[in-house]
Design a protein that fits this description.
This is CCAAT-binding factor domain-containing protein. It is a single chain. The protein contains 15 helices and two strands. It is mainly alpha-helical. It has a two-stranded antiparallel ribbon with strand order 1-2. Among the domains are: 112 residues, no CATH class; 94 residues, no CATH class.
């Protein structure tokens, strides 16, 4: 292995470093550092090969804990070291030191991934997005940072990259449905950014409207409704007696609202997520094309079934 590391071909060097890390991550952190450093090189083949190797090591190689985050040295129970034998104390300190260094290397890895997400080549950006989704699905380590990076790529200027991101987010929720509220909260932050463009908002709302809900998702359904209704005024731009409506954005909003409302278990409009927005819905009926108006009427029909105040109207 040492001969390969010194004078072997590039692919063989990556394989050798990977083998050392599989045999004993604790004793071969320099190999991890070398693989991470390759993510910054200009050669795209070397970069992609290193990324594939690192993903295998972090997941299949189980360098990361799939059920817990890495912790810093100051979070360890130092006082407990006095209760173990000298040999156990040395082993614990070695493992704690390894965990501390691994956390630092993992942060460096994510910084290098940021570079891939900004690459000029669409394929490279999509590769980086796929890597982030894989890591998110496997381990909670740096979960919030990874999720922010993933959701941010919904605003990618290239349609293929943006839709690929939405697909990765959908697969993430299929595998980990308990993350629905966390992901929706992050998407909500994206929607309210000052520099967000309409296309990114549309993709984000399409993603939200496709989230599968069940009877236990009452808080999630209510949160989604609040997001949708907050965008009605953004879609309806007032011009004297007439209005101009972004049909694609409105269609995504109405689809999501229609799907979420039955799961919110709202017993009355007053004080609920649609409070103050029913008049807007009635107004939209007269401002949009026939297919959208029909969707609005279907939503109003759902509302009337629960709250009879607008039945005559």
């Amino acid at each position: 292995i040492q001969t390969v590391l010194k004078s072997g071909a590039f692919a063989d060097k990556i394989a050798a470093h990977s083998l050392l890390l599989q045999e004993s991550p604790v004793h071969n952190l320099p190999s991890l550092k070398f693989l991470i450093s390759l993510l910054d090189v200009k050669g795209r083949r070397e970069c992609m090969s290193s990324l594939d190797a690192l993903l295998r090591l972090f997941t299949e190689g189980r360098i990361l804990n799939p059920n817990a985050k890495l912790s810093l040295m100051n979070k360890k129970p130092i006082g407990a070291l006095s209760t173990v034998t000298p040999r156990e104390r040395k082993e614990l300190l070695a493992l704690w030191s390894f965990e501390y260094q691994l956390k630092d290397f993992y942060n460096q890895f994510l910084v290098a991934l940021d570079g891939l997400l900004k690459d000029a080549v669409d394929t490279t950006r999509r590769k980086g997005i796929s890597a982030i989704a894989t890591l998110l699905s496997y381990s909670p380590e740096q979960e919030q940072g990874l999720l922010s990076r993933l959701v941010n790529k919904v605003g990618d200027p290239t349609r293929a990259v943006a839709t690929s991101t939405v697909g990765q987010m959908e697969r993430l929720l299929q595998k980990h449905p308990q993350m629905k509220l966390v992901v929706v909260a992050e998407v909500e932050r994206l929607l309210y950014r000052s520099n967000i463009n309409t296309k990114a908002q549309y993709y984000a709302l399409c993603f939200l409207s496709q989230i599968l809900l069940d009877s236990d998702d009452v808080p999630l359904a209510t949160k989604l409704i609040i997001i949708y209704v907050s965008f009605f005024k953004a879609c309806v731009k007032m011009y004297k007696p007439f209005g101009e409506v972004d049909s694609k954005l409105m269609n995504a909003l109405l689809t999501g609202l229609k799907r979420a409302y039955p799961y919110s278990k709202t017993v009355a409009i007053t004080g609920g997520p649609l409070d103050g927005h029913v008049d807007t819905l009635f107004k939209i009926v007269h401002m949009v094309k026939f297919s959208l108006a029909t969707q609005v009427l279907c939503i109003l029909d759902q509302i009337v079934e629960i709250d009879k105040n607008n039945s005559d109207r």
